[in-house]
């Protein structure tokens, strides 16, 4: 592997992916077989400045350079090679947010990240005007809220974009976005795979009374799909990325994508009727649709794959935090008796105990709301466990109800898709901490969705690897080769995964649990209102 990787590096048959996550910036270099051969990372944190969650420009560039430097050092240490070029590069970042620039390219206000919930009025008005769900974190909601607030900077906006779009622009000179990332700025017309022209016109009508000199289309980035070239690394860009000066300009760069799109690539779930569920501290499901939804649902976000297919997304703020807290309580109990506790074994025992419980959790109820859940209408959360005197209160049902409730909000949103909209799903890929204990979280999710769930034997490398694969696809695809085919045949071929089909009793049990879950939300509301 070392010799093959070194040859790939020297021959320029590599691809580099860099993704800005909320707590870590990661770089992954892959060889011609799309396998990671070097990596580097940089930890960072957002700041709350004047009630706005943000990252400074200095933090962005310092993080990018440090991340690249560590990856290049990894190459030098492993292969004895000074990295001077790669075959292709791609940049990705957490989606949404707002970065607005004037005609001179100066940032007008600090970067407003996806985490801010300051655009409720704008999101509601745009959703109503477009008949299309516009979440608060979308870039257009931030722009329109700034207009409604009569913020001084809006008249000077010459361009606005996302974090990934900003990085790409500064390194290539091109104001572009991949279609998946773009779909978190403004709605996409899935037939043209561009921003929806009718909605742009509607937005201009809504903002005309304010008298700005710009039209929306003039300040939006250009939209590209996976596989298209999105410019090359400029001399200035090479110096920004690699302060050592070793990196050469002229490297082709793929369209910048968001973390949702790179996650779909990393889990090979971009084909229609497929999806993925990421379940850890938070949980979200992404289902690739065959057609547009019949109705507007505030619980469902609509984005696209990197190829422009429509994706329904259910995002929930809470998943395993409360579950983990209970597991830690059992650890503390065991340690009180002088036992040494192996946490991996503890999770294994407790999770598997859940499989012995009653299908509907024996009448127990729990809510895992550490924070609010917009899908079920909660602005704050209080973790809660409740039972009736005659409920079957044992360890198996206790663990089962906490596993069920970790997917309760997700199930609420998915039922809208699967039962109201009759969306068809053939395959779901699960990834994240909930699935680390083999077979347990997987079977619970299969019951919740009444769909087979696959978990890969080896966890994917995540979004940085996903954007590296997109860069590789742009550089190496054959004539007419789709991204679906490229992933199936060149990236994931031969990878083993285990698929669990849903059991009828478990599906019925989860449905019975959800009926109680809906009725019991009044308890959660009372807890939020009374526990301060």
TrEMBL record:
Keyword Kinase: yes
One term of GO molecular function: kinase activity
Keyword terms, alphabetized: Kinase, Transferase
Pfam entry (one): FGGY_C
UniProt-listed InterPro entries: ATPase_NBD, FGGY_C, FGGY_Carb_Kinase, FGGY_N
Domain spans labelled Carbohydrate kinase FGGY N-terminal: 15-260
Keyword Transferase on entry: yes
Domain Carbohydrate kinase FGGY C-terminal: 276-473
SUPFAM superfamilies: Actin-like ATPase domain
Recorded family membership: Belongs to the FGGY kinase family.
Protein name according to UniProt: FGGY-family carbohydrate kinase
């Amino acid at each position: 592997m070392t010799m093959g990787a070194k040859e790939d590096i020297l021959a320029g048959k590599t691809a580099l992916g860099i993704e800005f996550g909320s707590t870590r910036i990661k770089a992954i270099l892959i060889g011609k077989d799309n396998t990671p051969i070097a990596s580097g990372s940089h930890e960072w944190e957002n700041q709350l400045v004047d009630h706005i969650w943000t990252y400074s420009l200095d933090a962005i560039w310092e993080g990018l350079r440090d991340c690249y430097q560590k990856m290049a050092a990894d190459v030098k240490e492993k292969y004895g090679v000074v990295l001077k070029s790669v075959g292709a590069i791609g940049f990705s970042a957490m989606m949404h947010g707002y970065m607005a620039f004037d005609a001179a390219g100066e940032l007008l206000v600090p970067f407003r990240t996806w985490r801010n919930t300051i655009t409720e009025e704008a999101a509601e008005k745009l959703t109503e005007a477009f008949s299309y769900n516009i979440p608060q974190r979308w870039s257009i909601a931030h722009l329109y809220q700034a207009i409604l607030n009569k913020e001084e900077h809006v008249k000077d906006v010459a361009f606005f974009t996302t974090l990934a779009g900003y990085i790409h622009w500064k390194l290539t000179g091109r104001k572009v976005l991949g279609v998946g990332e773009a779909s978190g700025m403004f709605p996409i017309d899935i037939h043209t795979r561009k921003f929806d022209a009718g909605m742009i016109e509607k937005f201009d009508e809504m903002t005309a009374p304010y008298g700005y000199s710009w039209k929306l289309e003039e300040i939006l980035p250009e939209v590209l799909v996976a596989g298209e070239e999105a410019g090359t690394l400029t001399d200035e860009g090479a110096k920004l990325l690699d302060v050592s000066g070793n990196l050469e300009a002229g490297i082709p760069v793929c369209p910048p994508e968001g973390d949702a799109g790179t996650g779909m690539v990393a889990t090979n779930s971009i084909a229609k009727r497929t999806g993925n569920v990421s379940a850890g501290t938070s949980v979200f499901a992404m289902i690739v649709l065959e057609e547009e939804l019949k109705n507007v649902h505030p619980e469902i976000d609509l984005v696209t794959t990197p190829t422009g297919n429509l994706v329904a997304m259910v995002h929930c703020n809470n998943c395993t935090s409360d579950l983990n807290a209970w597991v830690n309580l059992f650890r503390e109990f065991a340690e009180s008796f002088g036992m040494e506790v192996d946490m991996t074994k503890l999770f294994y025992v407790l999770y598997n105990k859940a499989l012995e419980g009653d299908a509907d959790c024996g009448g127990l109820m729990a809510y895992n709301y550490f924070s609010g859940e917009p899908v079920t209408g909660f602005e704050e959360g209080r973790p809660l466990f409740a039972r009736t005197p005659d409920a079957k209160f044992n360890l198996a049902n206790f663990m089962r109800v906490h596993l069920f409730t970790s997917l309760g909000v997700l199930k609420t949103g998915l039922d809208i898709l699967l039962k109201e909209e009759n969306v068809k799903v053939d395959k779901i890929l699960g990834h994240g901490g909930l699935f680390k204990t083999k077979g347990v979280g997987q079977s619970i999710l299969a019951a919740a969705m009444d769909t087979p769930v696959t978990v890969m034997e080896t966890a994917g490398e995540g979004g940085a690897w996903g954007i590296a694969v997109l860069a590789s696809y742009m550089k190496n695809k054959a004539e007419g080769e789709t991204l679906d085919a490229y992933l199936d045949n060149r990236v994931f071929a031969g990878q083993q995964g285990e698929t669990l089909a849903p059991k009828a009793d478990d599906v019925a049990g989860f449905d019975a649990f959800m009926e109680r879950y809906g009725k019991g939300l009044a308890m959660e509301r009372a807890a939020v209102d009374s526990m301060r």
